[in-house]
Amino acid sequence: MSAQLRETAGELADLLWREHTLYRERSGTVVIRGSHVERWISLSPTGGQDQVLIRAGRILAGGTTAPARSETVADLTGGRHELAAVCRRLLAETAVGAASGGAPRPSRPGREKRGTTRRPRKPARGGRHTGPASWLIILGLLTVVALCARAAVAAL
């Protein structure tokens, strides 16, 4: 199954993208990376005979892969063009998901923008701006000013 999966993935890669990287993971999954379109497709063997689990995801800044955004089980007995159509549909779903809900890419690789998350606003206080503690401070300051003025007048 592994040799058939790698052969199928190679043919799919040629149908999907002119530029691609093809590799096999330890689990037997074959991954097709299209770095120029920032997407990846993986083909994994399933429990069923002649079936494959196809997953699609994005390639993030720095070359790391994001978790799969969409997946489906397809039949290997169909032609390569049918499998390519399934892959294109998954890639389209991935692109729509990235456009609508994905985070914006940083302008420089490896740098995250700061301040992109908004903090919730504090609830507004009641109608009074000056609380009892503020009035006590103001009263204390007025007392100190009055005592200084009285001392200055007494000194004359």
What's the topology here?
Layout: H1 2-16, E1 21-24, E2 30-34, E3 39-45, E4 51-58, E5 70-75, H2 80-101, H3 132-155
What does this structure look like?
- It is built from three helices and five strands; from the N terminus they run αβββββαα.
- A five-stranded antiparallel β-sheet has the order 1-2-3-4-5.
- The chain has helices at residues 2-16, 80-101, 132-155, and strands at 21-24, 30-34, 39-45, 51-58, 70-75.
- Helix content is 39%, strand content 19%.
- The N and C termini lie far apart (108 Å).
- Helix 1 (2-16) crosses helix 2 (80-101).
- With 156 residues, it is an alpha+beta fold.
- The longest helix is centred in the last third of the chain and has 24 residues, at 132-155.
- The model is unreliable at 103-113 (pLDDT under 50).
Let me know the average pLDDT: 79
Distance between the termini: 108 Å
Low-confidence stretches: 103-113
SS summary, helix count: 3
Which class best fits the helix and strand makeup? alpha+beta
| Radius of gyration, taken over Cα atoms and rounded to an integer in Å | 33 Å
Order of SSEs: HEEEEEHH
